[in-house]
Amino acid sequence: MIRVLVADDEPLIRAGIRMILTSADDIDVVAEARDGREAVETARGTPVDVALLDIQMPVMDGLTALAEMGRATPRVRVLILTTFGERDNVLRALGHGSAGFLLKDSAPQELIQAVRAAAAGNAYLSPAATRHVVDTLASPAATVRGEEARRRLAGLTAREREVLSLLGEGLSNADAGARLHMSEATVKTYVSRILTKLDCDNRVQAALLARDAGLEPSAG
What we know:
The chain contains eleven helices and six strands. It is α/β, with parallel strands linked by helices. Strands 2-1-3-4-5-6 form a six-stranded parallel β-sheet, sandwiched between helices. Strand 3, helix 3 and strand 4 form a beta-alpha-beta unit. The longest helix has 15 residues.
């Protein structure tokens, strides 16, 4: 079972999310929190695989809680859930190590899919959030980011660059392995090595670096 923590200051929102997630046979909502501080403390004391954090919460907002959980409970994969789709929120969430970003008007099945992806170690961005990221990558600042990303990728081997290019496509370890004719375990080893070399906390950050650097997907 995927153990989930839901943090939102609105009881009805928490109840709705719980109802959606527990409709899936492989997901169990094991804890709830009313604010970011309570979410961090709950994650410390409760076995949790995935945390859904609202951005706008009292005491401590979701983005601050995300950063705190990254330090206190790095085992927990965090999805940011919000009604606000501003570009800065998306990029700040990814920069703090979020496993994904969802808008509250996402379809129920999308929420379930995102939790499963996060629990599997993959990244998930809602289509709306993806548009914000793409828009930002196309901005003038992308030139500076591209130069920095290419500098960081310079130390990767050819095979590591192939694997990274598939992370940039959003592929799972299994799918990347099938594309490159490698086992899932081998891809996982490569991903760990890539994250260490690039000084990235997670796959999302590495994928964004690949996009910034203009790394082309492998033809397989």
